[in-house]
Task: inverse folding
């Protein structure tokens, strides 16, 4: 009689102990994983007042980092935050970078700001979400960080409190962030490669650091960690339904020779180059960031990108199936009705107005997502100092059916020497439905 | 060779660097030269006051009006270019088509209520007449108040509904939001039905200046005085 309850009691004690250990671990884990080379900051020494030169440099760097784009809500005060950034884990809202004392960076020191950039940790010690690309910004030098901070402190303060993130459990916990950091983050420092030119090093610093090109162009794993061996290898951006093309692959957006290095500089500076137009998320980047960079810096970025290891050429995949051929024939008719006026019978476009479709890598790139987006939504390239009055493309979302969009794209992907795979109505439907839902 | 060259020549009209060419993305929905007829959904933009058009473009870009396609169009464009586009369409002086037929079940009583609201307002619910701000001929007033004739019924209904629901906004004080919130849904149907059934008067141009002081203060008008170069 008495053995049963005693055994039961011992069992219960074990369970309680095990549970206690688990709870303790859950508490301890973030503590153990939390610091990644950073420590608590000493109370801020009074920083010397910022110089005009430093503020100007900071303004330029803020353009290079495109800070304003994420840290400004639609119609909101610049840099006051509140823009929602969709991620696979929920929506993260950007914070207020203006020097408002209560809701912005008013109470921050240059050291607090440096720690946020370099270690991904806020002034109050909490870990920041990697939607803020601190894994890239960790390469930013302390000098540049201080200049950026001086610029932000010079802005008019705007009182705008933080919008709470809308994230699912467990992604809304500090533990999740501590684990993520332990898996994917090492605080870094940009170590110049002495074997390479100063130009290459400048380009590498901008592309891999403030420019945070990897945030969109490097594939991520299921937990949103960058797959480092695939640096800038291109990947879909599922939340936006666009593809960030590979910056290494010659058949995508690779900068592979001096000719397309020049085109890269022009595209980043003006939003248009012979055979290329910046549309979709990249239009935003050109508009708010790269058009403001010096040609020297853009050239340096091209030099760095040109040195990326080029993956093996994928075989061209021309349309050979009977359905594909039929689809292309139907597409030729649609092309004559809707596209030929601007893009021309030979797919050559009009210089400085309409891009050519013949030999255009955005047309023949393996994944047709961006192409479908452009046909459905149309739109303008960014208005820039170099191309202030761009020509626009009409949207066809209400005019053409999925079958028709697939047909016309299959046609242009196979005409005039292009040799890319066909586009199916299912491809179009996937993008149309996502656009309607979002 | 010769045949194909001839075909190419026939298919491709010469490219002309003009605003009409640059704004093909606009005219795809708003009709050739921006003269969308009242039988669709999209509003005519040709001949509307430049300030009104410019501020609508800004309103889309800054989130005071919501329509995905429009937002996508204006997002990458600068204030200067949006103003140029607005001025281009405002300057187009083109005839209007006759109004679309009213839907078959529109009752005479509904149209009469619509006409009363438009011409006289309704003091009981504190609604000014449309004509007090939009001009006696309802063709708008320079530079900021749009004409209300020649628009599709669905478009008018949708805009008044969106104002009532807070989904369309203008600069504060947002007079149209105040008015739309005082209107009952059946009043919205009435005034939209009457407006869309009216033909324009012989002079279709917006009035140069308001004939009388405006009954409400409108941010969209006061902001115009400072914002338009």
Result:
């Amino acid at each position: 009689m008495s053995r049963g309850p005693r055994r039961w009691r011992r069992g219960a004690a074990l369970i309680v102990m095990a549970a206690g250990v688990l709870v303790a671990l859950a508490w301890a884990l973030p503590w153990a994983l939390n610091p990644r080379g950073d420590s608590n900051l000493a109370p801020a020494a009074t920083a010397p007042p910022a110089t005009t030169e430093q503020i100007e440099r900071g303004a330029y760097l803020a353009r290079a980092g495109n800070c304003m784009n994420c840290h400004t809500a639609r119609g909101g005060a610049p840099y006051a935050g509140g823009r929602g950034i969709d991620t696979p884990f929920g929506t993260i809202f950007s914070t207020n970078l203006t020097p408002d004392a209560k809701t912005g960076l008013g109470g921050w020191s240059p050291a607090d700001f440096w720690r946020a950039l370099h270690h991904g940790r806020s002034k109050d010690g909490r870990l920041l979400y990697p939607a803020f690309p601190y894994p890239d910004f960790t390469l930013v030098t302390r000098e540049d960080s201080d200049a950026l901070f001086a610029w932000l402190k010079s802005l008019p303060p705007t009182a705008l409190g933080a919008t709470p993130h809308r994230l699912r459990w467990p992604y809304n916990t500090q533990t999740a962030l501590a684990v993520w950091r332990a898996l994917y983050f090492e605080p870094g420092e940009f170590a110049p490669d002495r074997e390479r030119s100063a130009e290459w090093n400048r380009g590498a610093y901008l592309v891999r650091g403030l420019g945070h090109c990897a945030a969109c162009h490097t594939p991520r794993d299921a937990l949103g960690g960058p797959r480092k061996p695939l640096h800038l290898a291109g990947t879909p951006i599922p939340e936006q339904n666009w593809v960030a093309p590979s910056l290494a692959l010659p058949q995508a957006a690779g900068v592979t020779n001096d000719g397309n290095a020049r085109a890269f500089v022009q595209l980043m500076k003006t939003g248009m180059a012979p055979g290329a137009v910046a549309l979709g998320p990249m239009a935003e980047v050109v508009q708010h960031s790269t058009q403001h960079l010096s040609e020297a810096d853009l050239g340096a970025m091209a030099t760095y990108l040109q040195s990326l290891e080029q993956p093996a050429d994928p075989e061209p995949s021309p349309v050979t199936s009977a359905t594909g051929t039929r689809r292309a024939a139907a597409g030729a008719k649609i092309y004559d009705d809707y596209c030929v006026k601007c893009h021309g019978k030979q797919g050559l476009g009009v210089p400085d107005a309409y891009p050519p479709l013949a030999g255009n890598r955005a047309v023949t790139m393996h994944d047709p997502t961006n192409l479908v987006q452009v046909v459905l939504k149309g739109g303008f390239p960014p208005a820039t100092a170099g191309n202030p009055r761009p020509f626009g493309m009409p949207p066809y979302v209400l005019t053409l059916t999925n079958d028709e969009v697939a047909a016309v794209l299959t046609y242009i992907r196979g005409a005039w020497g292009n040799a890319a795979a066909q586009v199916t109505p299912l491809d179009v439907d996937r993008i149309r439905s996502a656009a309607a839902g979002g | 060779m010769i045949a194909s060259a001839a075909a190419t020549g026939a298919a491709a009209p010469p490219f002309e660097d003009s605003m009409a060419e640059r704004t093909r993305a606009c005219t795809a929905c708003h009709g050739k030269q921006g003269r969308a007829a009242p039988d669709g959904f999209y509003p005519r933009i040709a001949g509307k006051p430049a300030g009104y058009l410019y501020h609508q473009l800004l309103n889309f870009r800054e989130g005071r009006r919501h329509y995905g396609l429009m937002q996508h169009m204006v997002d990458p464009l600068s204030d200067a270019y949006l103003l140029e586009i607005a001025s281009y369409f405002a300057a187009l002086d083109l005839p209007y088509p006759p109004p679309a037929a009213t839907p078959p079940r529109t009752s005479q009583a509904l149209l009469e209520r619509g006409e009363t609201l438009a011409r006289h307002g309704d003091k009981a619910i504190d609604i000014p007449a449309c004509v007090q701000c939009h001009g006696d001929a309802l063709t708008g007033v320079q530079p900021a108040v749009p004409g209300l004739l020649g628009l599709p019924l669905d478009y008018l209904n949708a805009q008044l509904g969106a104002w009532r629901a807070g989904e369309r906004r203008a600069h504060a004080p947002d007079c149209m939001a105040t008015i739309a919130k005082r209107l009952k849904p059946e009043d919205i149907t009435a005034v939209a039905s009457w407006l869309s059934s009216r033909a324009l008067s012989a002079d279709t141009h917006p009035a140069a200046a308001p004939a009388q002081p405006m009954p409400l203060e409108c941010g969209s008008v006061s902001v115009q005085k400072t914002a338009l170069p």
Q: What stands out?
A: Residues 79-91 of chain B form the longest helix (13 residues). Residues 1-11 of chain B have pLDDT under 50 and may be disordered. Strands of chain B lie at 140-141, 145-146.
